[in-house]
Write a structure and sequence with these properties.
Number of helices: 5
Helix content: under 10%
Shape: flat
Number of strands: 80
Mean pLDDT: 83
Structural class: mainly beta
Distance between the termini: 102 Å
Strand content: over 45%
Largest sheet: 5 strands, mixed
Low-confidence stretches: 814-821, 953-1053
Radius of gyration: 60 Å
């Protein structure tokens, strides 16, 4: 302990010194020391001098990697300050530290560069002192490269190196299997050169452990290296059938770790083709195959082959090149108003075989734990955004192989602050000046509003808008109003809150400035005129006592204006007017302070009445069988008695000209608007008698009709024949029958028949025949046998031929089965209790095939079901038959008129009676008796248990009573009817250890310990009841015999 200067306060009677030994974790106390400071002759100020180390210089040694600690202790008055510097370089600032008021310099992790002269300087106001410490850095041995294990094949060469450094230079000694190499048996294949051992042409059996010992005076290093000489065939260490997955355009690395002696050579195959060590492939020394830029075509099976002179091994691996994950629709920068909703979209495309995971980040951190943030499959929604939600949002799509991300910023904006300090200046009769101070977001445009406390208190109206740079507005006012003003600022987000209202400003009354608008004169009755207008607002009245002066007179008639003054209304009715004549009307506003400006006259009309006359000179010009033109003379305006809307033409078909009696059809109406004098009547039927009349229409209604006018339409082409039937098909002939058209549209002149042989792919020549109108049948002879014919048939009038109908038929095969309707192999079979299947083979052109059936000996009509009319084998299921009933069934073919063309012989089908195996147990007497007996037995057992318990005895089924419900209680809940199968096994549970339930949750089977509580066919119960519904799993190995109530009772006794 050194004192740079001694003070009286440093006197101590006992100063304890303790020595601490960290490694042994002990502390030893020295003898106490007494320090006494004499103050008889105090020393004065003096220059610094060193107490330790002594002299001008000293030497200190440090070991590499250790801690260098340099200390200079100086004395003097005033107390000297100590500083350090290195004469041959800079101090290592990152590894040095000062202690004891810079008296001690410590340098950690000493290196060779830390050697040199360190100078400490002690300085006070009287001078300075210097001391130089020469530092030498020594080093214990340290590794440059340690020897490594070798695996050599016979006759190979290997080298062991043991490179170390230190100061002083270490001495290296080699040993073999723990014996110094100089004392070991001589080996011609081994040569030692200082820090290297060369092994040449090694042989099997020369494996050994070599030790390298490097030492100097400060320490030593020892390392072992195992030299293994062996002959080993190749082995591939990479697991077989590894699957490597990589993203397109990324490098792929396929491992092929191997072992062998000599070291195996590695080759690669892909698609049975050798891979060369060139672009895009790189084969590394450790056998790994690198594909610089993997593409989808690189996917597939790769084979790695390891070979040396002792053999060959191969291994197969697989490469899958996946599509990269890409964000197609990135989130976009958004500016959102406060309390609105923000939606960021992030739509991603990825390889379908990879499972994606979408994450959203806010400012590169997790999203706030807030229910306002809703994450969907491809979007992020933020509801009711606030300023705290501003930031950068990033969607990150991760797969097991790659990821992609995109970011967008969210900016939250709000409305500007409201203006303040509204003041009214320059007050005049009809104007005032308003000034204000704008709020935040200066230069925002402003909206000025007013409230009229006199006429509409509480309702604010927009008055004017001003630019954002203005703070003053000149406002034009109306008379007779109590004004209050307020100002709002507006920006791209919206309006601010309104400012506080200004003080009230009242204007004086005056005469009206404007008259009512929307003045109209319209009659509602044939003898009145209703004058209406839009009333003035309270602000437009300009004063109290607002009234309306209504003026009217008939137009183009020399007469004075009539007038009437009304108040609080928007219309006035003038009575006793002529029907539909023009009037001039005007309305003027007046108040207690005068009249408004002179109003302008508006023309209106008194009320309408229905027209008095019908159009005259009606003529009809028939254009063709379906179109006619009608002409008429217009009705005089005075007879219309209203605003003409048009002419209504009503016409209807009386009858066809074929018919003598009238068959009037529904009336048709056409309205020709405006002052028309003609019109067209489309959609008429040819060769018909029509009637029409015309009425004039005004706003009040229709006038009287004109006299009925008849006209006839000329003939037209007929409609299609009503039917075409083919009968009596033979080998070379057949019969055709037809019916006349439903609409002749004129006088029939005959029929045209065209026919040709062939099928849909190839048709023969067309034959044509004409028939008079009174014929309805024809026999076609000299046809080819077993040939399909197609027939085209239409009717004719003098106007031409009508639409054609077609039909097909096949002549009968020569002395073989007829081609017409024919059934073979007709069979039947019963399906269940309510169905039967009919099967057959059908050959014929007609498609209307039916299955008909009827209850045997029944007088009801046959039930008919349409079936597939295609040729070949067919089947049909008849459903809904009554069990235990016999039916007669047949197959029939019908024509278009539902006449039977062909029918099979009747089959008799008898359905089995329904099995009466479903019994309502709840209504069976034996079942009720059995339940009562079981209930009584359970009651006896409960009484016996109660007696045994009161006597303090124990009984073996106590646990069963506690664990299971009483069967009586369980059976009370069973309200369903159940059917039980016959007993087939005596086991207590099914083979799979479970009890299978049917649709009912409350089956009697559940009340037995086994799954086979059942009934015999005669209804007797052969199962046993127990007190629990399911069997515990630990009871599975017990006896398969169910316990009976009798045995249970005996166990109690």
């Amino acid at each position: 302990m050194y004192f740079s200067k001694v003070l009286l306060d440093d006197t101590r009677t006992t100063t304890s010194v303790y020595a601490r030994f960290p490694h042994t974790q002990t502390i030893q106390q020295k003898q106490p020391i007494t320090v006494k400071v004499l103050d008889s002759n105090p020393s004065g100020e003096r220059r610094p001098s060193f107490m330790a180390p002594l002299g001008q210089s000293s030497t200190q040694m440090a070991l590499r990697g250790g801690v260098l600690e340099l200390e200079c202790i100086a004395e003097g008055l005033p107390t000297p300050e100590v500083s350090w510097y290195k004469e041959s370089g800079d101090l290592p600032s990152s590894r040095m530290s000062f202690h004891n008021f810079q008296k001690t310099l410590k340098i950690a992790d000493v290196m060779e560069a830390d050697a040199g002269d360190y100078r400490c300087t002690a300085k006070n106001s009287l001078g300075s002192a210097h001391h130089t410490i020469k530092v030498n850095v020594k080093a214990a041995p340290f590794w440059i490269s340690a020897p490594r294990n070798l695996i050599l094949a016979p006759e190979e060469t290997g080298i062991l190196t043991c490179r170390v450094s230190g100061d002083p230079k270490p001495q290296i000694a080699w040993s073999v299997n723990g014996v110094p190499i100089k004392d070991s048996p001589k080996d011609t294949s081994r040569k030692v050169e200082d820090d290297t051992v060369i092994l040449s042409d090694v042989q099997t059996g020369s494996s050994a452990v070599y030790q390298c010992n490097a030492s100097n005076e400060f320490g030593y290093l020892l390392a072992n290296a195992f030299v293994n000489v062996l002959a080993e065939a190749p082995r591939v260490l990479t697991p077989p059938n590894n699957v490597y997955q990589v993203i397109t355009n990324n490098p792929a690395f396929l491992d092929c770790a191997s072992f062998g002696s000599p070291i195996p050579a590695i080759t690669w195959l892909v698609h049975l083709t050798s891979i060369l060590n060139r672009d895009p492939y790189v084969i590394h020394n450790n056998g790994t195959l690198e594909i610089n830029v993997a593409q989808s075509l690189n996917s597939g099976k790769y084979t790695c082959i390891a070979s040396n002179n002792l053999g060959t091994r191969e291994n197969h691996v697989y490469l899958e090149v996946k599509e990269p994950t890409r964000i197609l629709a990135q989130p976009e920068y958004m500016v959102v108003q406060r309390n609105r909703k923000a939606v960021f979209e992030c739509k991603v495309k990825h390889d379908p075989t990879l499972i994606p995971t979408m994450n959203w980040l806010k400012d590169n951190g997790e999203l706030p734990d807030d229910e306002r943030f809703l994450v969907d499959t491809d979007s992020l929604t933020i509801n009711e955004v606030t300023e705290e939600d501003e930031g950068t949002y990033t969607c990150v799509m991760n797969t097991t192989l790659d990821q992609d991300s995109a970011s967008a910023m969210l900016t939250v904006v709000g409305e500007p602050d409201p203006p303040t300090d509204l003041e009214l200046t320059d007050q005049r009769e009809r104007s005032v000046q308003l000034t204000w101070i704008p709020g935040d977001e200066h230069n925002s445009p402003t909206q000025i509003q007013y409230e009229d406390l006199l006429h509409q208190a509480g309702v604010w109206h927009n008055l004017t808008e001003e630019e954002g740079t203005k703070t003053t507005a000149h406002l034009d006012l109306s008379p007779y109003a109590y004004y209050s003003f307020r100002v709002l600022a507006v920006n791209h987000v919206g309006y601010s809150q309104p400012s506080r209202p200004s003080r009230q400003y009242r204007t004086n009354p005056a005469a009206p400035d404007v008259n009512p608008t929307d003045v109209h004169g319209v009659g509602t009755e044939h003898n009145n005129l209703v004058i209406s207008w839009k009333e003035l607002t309270g602000l437009q009245s300009n004063g109290p006592g607002l009234q309306y002066k209504v003026n009217w007179r008939q137009k183009d008639v020399e007469e004075d204006w009539l007038s009437e003054t009304v108040a609080n209304t928007s219309k006035y009715v003038v009575s006793g007017t002529p029907t539909f004549v023009p009037y001039e009307v005007k309305v003027q506003a007046v108040n207690d302070y005068g009249n408004g400006p002179a109003p302008e006259a508006v023309v209106g009309y008194s009320g309408e009445d229905v027209p008095m006359s019908a159009p005259e000179s009606v003529q009809v010009l028939v254009q063709n069988g379906t179109l006619a033109e009608v002409h008429w003379e217009p009705v005089l305006t005075s007879m219309v008695r209203g605003r003409l809307q048009g002419y209504k033409v009503s016409y209807w078909r009386e009858r066809s000209l074929h018919q003598a009696e009238a068959q009037q059809e529904e009336q048709q109406v056409l309205l020709f608007s405006g002052n028309r004098t003609d019109g067209r009547l489309p959609g008429l039927k040819p060769y018909s008698l029509y009637t029409l009349n015309i009425r004039v229409v005004n706003g009040k209604g229709e006038g009287p009709p004109s006299p009925n006018h008849n006209f006839e339409t000329p003939e037209g082409v007929p409609g299609p024949p009503s039917f075409l039937r083919i009968k009596n098909t033979d080998m070379d002939s057949l019969t055709l029958e037809w019916g006349p058209p439903q609409d002749n549209n004129g006088r029939l002149t005959g029929y045209t028949l065209k026919y040709q042989p062939g099928n849909s792919n190839e048709l023969g020549p067309v034959e044509e025949m004409m028939f008079p109108a009174n014929e309805t049948t024809v026999i076609l002879a000299d046809l080819k046998y077993s040939t399909r014919y197609k027939f085209y048939f239409n009717a004719k009038t003098i106007k031409g031929s009508g639409p054609t109908i077609t039909e097909e038929a096949v002549t009968i095969m020569d002395e073989v089965r007829p081609i017409g309707p024919a059934f073979t192999n007709v069979n039947s079979s019963v399906v269940g209790e309510e169905g039967a299947v009919i099967s057959w083979e059908y050959f014929g052109p007609d498609k209307n095939v039916y299955v008909e059936y009827i209850v045997e000996n029944s007088k009801e009509d046959w039930t008919k079901e349409c079936v597939n009319g295609s040729s070949g084998s067919q089947t049909h299921l008849i459903k809904g038959l009554k069990p235990g009933t016999s039916y007669r069934v047949r197959l029939v073919v019908k024509d278009h008129s539902e006449a039977t063309i062909h029918s099979t012989e009747e089959l008799v089908i008898t359905l089995p009676a329904m099995k009466s195996d479903q019994v309502d147990l709840a209504t069976q007497g034996w079942f009720i008796g059995l339940m009562c007996a079981i209930a009584l037995l359970i009651l006896v057992l409960l009484i016996i248990c109660f007696i045994k318990r009161n006597k303090g005895g124990k009984y073996p089924v106590k646990e069963k009573e506690d664990a299971h419900q009483d069967p009586e209680i369980q059976l009370e809940h069973n309200t369903h009817t159940h059917t039980f199968p016959l007993k087939t096994t005596g086991s207590r549970t099914p083979s799979n250890g479970t009890v299978k339930r049917d649709d009912s949750d409350d089956s009697l089977v559940d009340y037995g310990e086994g799954g086979d509580g059942q009934f015999n066919e005669d209804g007797s119960f052969i199962g046993q009841y127990s007190g629990k519904k399911e069997k515990d799993t630990h009871e599975g190995n017990e006896s398969s015999e169910a316990p009976s109530p009798v045995n249970a009772m005996n166990s109690f006794v």
